[in-house]
Specification:
5-stranded mixed beta sheet, 2 domains
Length: about 400
């Protein structure tokens, strides 16, 4: 019993000295509870709590304003109307706003036509974001048709000067609505979501081999010998970028291949690759550079392998939970979707979705790629600063 108590005492002493490890035991589960509960809060509700942005484009500003007032509410909020149809299509492709209703010039004239079976119902066009959930798209479609019905009944009442029963009219007689998905078909499928998501997650876990090898080299004196040969520390960091960049590219190619072959082999959907391979390669390369920058920063900051494992591993998992890797962002509430923008994994996922899902061009991946490259430069500069700071504070090292 005395030996057992002594072993217990030894373990308690070791735990008391590992403050970071104890913090992870308590803080990581708490962080996951908060992040995952908030991210999935809408999934367990009966209705959608998120607001979907929409805009109305009509030649008559008064008609557009009237339609906006009628369509707003119950999960939909009005957004500024785009300058023209080209701008509307470009905005919907980016998801801002998610819906644009195009009203033709002869809409009011068609509304005033008599319902004699010979007149053609007014035709509307709805531009829809491919990432919009089908339930929200259906709800807005029915809302538009209902508003069109109300407008047509109102026009008939004004023309006849008598009361009209709205229940006497069917929605299909009020207007026809053509739904046009911009840049893709529907929201991301399972393979379109999970293949790039876990590809990104795997790339960022390059932090483990980078930091482990760096710490071992520092502990065994390899880095000190290289520095004594007048090799700049920045050159030592850059020397690690090339090999791991190739590893990440190979990893990305294998993950895409798995989406094309392995997933359908198990009965899932086949990943459809885009025609623009150069854009897909650009997003993959920018993601790789950002992941390597994160690995170098963790390696320089960590003094032990345990610290590198905790900082790198937990940081990756939290960034994945927040950035739409573990939980798709389209099921998150609006506040969590905005918060997810701080995660670099969300930037990378936006870039992959712009190419794979929306069939976008270079302009569509520019923003996420620039943010990823800027992050990589910032992390590289931070790693150099940490190393310089430690040399100033501890010259003997």
């Amino acid at each position: 019993m005395r030996r057992l108590l002594a072993l217990w005492e030894k373990e308690w002493l070791a735990l008391s000295r590992d403050v970071l490890g104890l913090a992870v035991l308590f803080l990581m589960p708490a962080a996951f509870i908060v992040v995952m509960s908030l991210a999935l809060s809408d999934v367990f509700k009966g209705g959608a709590a998120r607001l979907t942005g929409f805009a109305v484009m009509a030649a008559d500003p008064k008609l557009a304003e009237r339609l906006v007032r009628s369509l707003s509410g119950e999960g939909f909020r009005a957004a500024p109307a785009p300058a023209d149809e080209a701008a509307a299509r470009d905005g919907v492709r980016r998801g801002t706003p998610s819906l644009v209703l195009l009203v033709p010039r002869d809409f009011e004239r068609a509304l005033n036509a008599p319902l004699d079976g010979k007149s053609t119902p007014p035709k509307l066009t709805l531009l829809a974001d491919p990432a919009l959930p089908p339930t929200q798209l259906l709800a807005f479609r029915q809302r538009v048709l209902g508003v069109a019905l109300a407008l047509r009944v109102s026009a008939m009442m004004r023309r006849a000067g008598i009361a009209a029963d709205a229940d006497a009219f069917d929605l299909k007689h009020a207007a026809t609505l053509n739904v046009e998905t911009i840049g893709g078909a529907g929201r991301p499928s399972s393979v379109q979501q999970n293949t790039p998501a876990w590809l990104i997650f795997g790339m960022f876990f390059v932090v483990m081999p980078i930091s482990s090898l760096f710490i071992v080299e520092r502990r065994e004196g390899t880095l000190a010998r290289l520095v004594s040969l007048r090799v700049p520390f920045s050159m030592l960091l850059l020397g690690k970028v090339g090999p791991y960049f190739v590893v990440n590219l190979a990893q990305g190619a294998l993950m895409l291949l798995a989406g094309r072959t392995l997933v359908p082999w198990f009965g899932g959907e086949t990943l459809a690759l885009p025609a623009r391979w150069d854009l897909l390669a650009a997003v993959t390369a920018c993601t790789s550079v950002a992941a390597i920058g994160w690995g170098l920063f963790v390696a320089v900051c960590s003094r032990t392998l345990e610290q590198a494992t905790v900082i790198g591993g937990v940081g990756n998992i939290l960034a994945a939970a927040l950035g739409g890797i573990m939980v798709p962002r389209f099921v998150m509430p609006e506040t969590m979707q905005k918060l997810s923008e701080v995660s670099p994994m969300a930037w990378a996922l936006d870039g992959f979705h712009a190419v794979i899902l929306r069939q976008g061009g270079a302009a569509d991946i520019a923003a996420p790629c620039v943010k990823l490259l800027a992050l990589a430069l910032a992390l590289f500069a931070a790693a150099l600063w940490v190393h310089h700071r430690r040399r100033v504070l501890a010259p003997a090292q």
